[in-house]
Structures are given as C-alpha cells and as structure tokens.
Amino acid sequence: MTRSVKANDFVVSLRALENDGRMPVRRSAPIPEIAVSTAWVPEGAEVSADLVLEAVHGGVLASGTVSAPWMAECGRCLEMARGTVVAEVRELFEEGGGEQDMTYPLGEESVDLEPMVREQCILGLPLRPLCKPDCRGLCSRCGANLNEGPCGCPTERDERWAGLDILRED
Ligand SMILES: [Zn+2]
Ligand SMILES: [Zn+2]
Predict the structure, then answer these.
(1) In sequence order, what are the residues at sequence separation of 6 or more whose Cβ sits closer than 8 angstroms to the Cβ of residue 134?
(2) What's the DSSP call for residue 124?
(3) Distance 136 CA to ligand 2 centre (A)
(4) In this structure, which ligand is nearest to the CA of 76?
(5) Residue 10: count of CB within 10 angstroms of its CB
C-alpha cells in the first residue's frame, strides 16, 4: 500500500460523485499560516469545511460554509480580540484550474479543498478587528484603556464647553 507523502485532511476522493453526482463533505483540521497583517487563525486551530460537492459541466462545484477561529490585536484598545471567520463559499474546481483563474484545480480522482478553504478564510479575516463592537479604545491623552473605566482626563465634550467658555469671556 502506498501512503500519501503529506497527510491532508482536505483531500477528498471524487469516487462517490460518480454515483449520484452530489456528495456532502465535512472536514475539520488545522491549516498552517492563515494570516493577514491585522488578524490570524491561531496555529493548530481547527478549520472547518461543511460543503456539498456537485458534479457540474466542466468540473466540480463546492458550496457551503468554511469557518475558523481568529485572533487579532484590537484596532482600538490593542488588547487581544477573538472571533470566528464564517465564509459562504461557492467555488468551481476544474481541470487546469488554479493560480490565474477564478477556479481551483481538480485532480483525476480527488480534489484538494485546502487551497480554497485557506483562501476563503484569509478573505474572511477582519481588516479592522475589534475586541467587541463597542470597544471604547484608549484615551488619546493618557493612553488608559477606557474599557476599564474612565481615566479622569477631561472628555471631548468638556473641551467643547471650555471653548464656549472662552467665547463667552470675549
Ligand atoms: Zn478593544
Ligand atoms: Zn486619559
């Protein structure tokens, strides 16, 4: 028996497609180095694909959901932010697909979903990650984390009133 050199849990045999032209595929495994400058999928975290593969004219269509946890530095308070990428996918795999095309390559008897899953996760990573939607960020004066309470600096409203006071004095 031969074993594949690199174990990849996202390689799917297409033999089942020959019967009714459609098969559900559920896979979950870590994929290394999914990252953008603002956020990343933690090393070793499970990336999940919940897909239906369909034999279509010219190839195999994969549709469903790809998901993974992400981590990032909050864009406002710089604390650790976490969330989940959930990407709706509808991607075509075809012979000779890949790189320059909008499609992915298709093997003769199997298809490797990993490059697609990886790419869709990267596209789903947040470009402006926040630790929570209403993060208050850091005080622009003293740098205190305002999620932990007021820092004691005068607020912007105070400054506006201060401006009015000056006008009044004139
Ligand atoms: Zn934050
Ligand atoms: Zn402050």
Answers:
(1) none
(2) H
(3) 12
(4) 1
(5) 19
Cα 134 to ligand 2 centroid, rounded to whole Å: 18
Phi, psi of 54 (to 5 degrees): -130, 135
**pTM score of the predicted model:** 0.80
Compute the distance between CA of residue 72 and CA of residue 36 in angstroms, rounded to an integer: 10
Gap from CA of 38 to ligand 1 centroid (Å): 13
* Cβ contacts of 79 within 8 Å, gap of 6 or more: 73, 131, 145, 147
Query: Which residue reads 């004219």 in tokens?
Result: 57
Rg, the chain, Cα only: 24
pLDDT digit of tens for each residue in the chain (170 aa)? 444 444 579 999 998 888 889 999 999 999 999 999 999 999 999 999 999 999 998 899 999 999 999 999 999 999 999 999 999 999 999 988 877 778 999 988 999 999 999 999 999 999 999 999 999 999 999 999 999 999 999 866 655 555 555 555 54
Ligand 2 center from residue 155 Cα (angstroms)? 8
Place of tokens 């075509």: 92
Looking at the DSSP bridge assignments, the partners of residue 97 are none
| Residue bearing tokens 């709706």 | 88
DSSP H stretches of helix in the chain: 17-20, 114-124, 156-169
